[in-house]
Amino acid sequence: MSVLELRGVSKRFGAIQALSDISLAVEPGQIVGLMGDNGAGKSTLVKIISGNFRPSAGQVLVGGTPAEFHNPREARDAGVEVVYQDLALCNNLTAAANVFLGREMMRGFGPFRVLDNRAMYARAGVLFEELKSETRPYDLVRRMSGGQRQAVAIARTRLSEPKIVLMDEPTAAISVRQVAEVLDLIRRLRDQGIAVVLISHRMPDVFAVADRIAVLRRGTLVTDKPASQSSPEEVTGLITGAIEQAA
């Protein structure tokens, strides 16, 4: 059973047709590279899956169950997590504090409740260990590399035991060494049975980890095929319109 399925999803903003009849299925433990030029509809599709937008037509299913998300919290409760390009981290806080930001663990003393910092730091340490990241719970985010920051953002998604993680340009503006670190983190999510949709402009990174490639052009899905049966040249042609439809 697909962990995520889109059936004929379309989205209009007034006179603008942002997405047209998108059908796509993602299996557990599968990495799908979602590619397309600026304005192709990638961000709109991610926002529909994550509960920020509702589709104008079509249906979203999570784990085979129709899902009508009214906000991101409902999507998260259903097992959909998103790592946005800006990561939404607080530089002045530790890695553990960022992992639990907005979902802090508490302990009570009679009528009083306080932050359970010991439990949060211990849990964050386990999450970083599962991801085989060098990030430590007490590290300050402002002193971290781009790869370590991604590890914090990815660890945060693991709190809710997600079924699928949407990653928006995770390797943009970081060094080659940090790119390799982030790609390893993505593979570890896959190895844990979590589906990943990787949105990226970086062709080598997508082909390094993706099981399937999906390409959007002007709001239309122009290919959805195994990465082994495609190539960077074909994807470039599909994105630019030099190739109308994949073979």
UniProtKB/TrEMBL annotation:
Q: Which SMART domains match?
A: AAA
CDD domains with a match to the protein in the record: ABC_Carb_Monos_I (cd03216)
Gene Ontology terms, MF aspect: ATP binding; ATP hydrolysis activity
Q: List UniProt keywords, sorted A-Z.
A: ATP-binding, Nucleotide-binding
Question: Which Gene3D superfamilies does the UniProt entry name for this protein?
Answer: P-loop containing nucleotide triphosphate hydrolases (3.40.50.300)
Source organism: Thalassobaculum litoreum DSM 18839
Q: Where is the ABC transporter domain?
A: 4-243
Q: What is this protein called?
A: Monosaccharide ABC transporter ATP-binding protein, CUT2 family (TC 3.A.1.2.-)
Which superkingdom does the taxonomy of this entry point to?
A: Bacteria
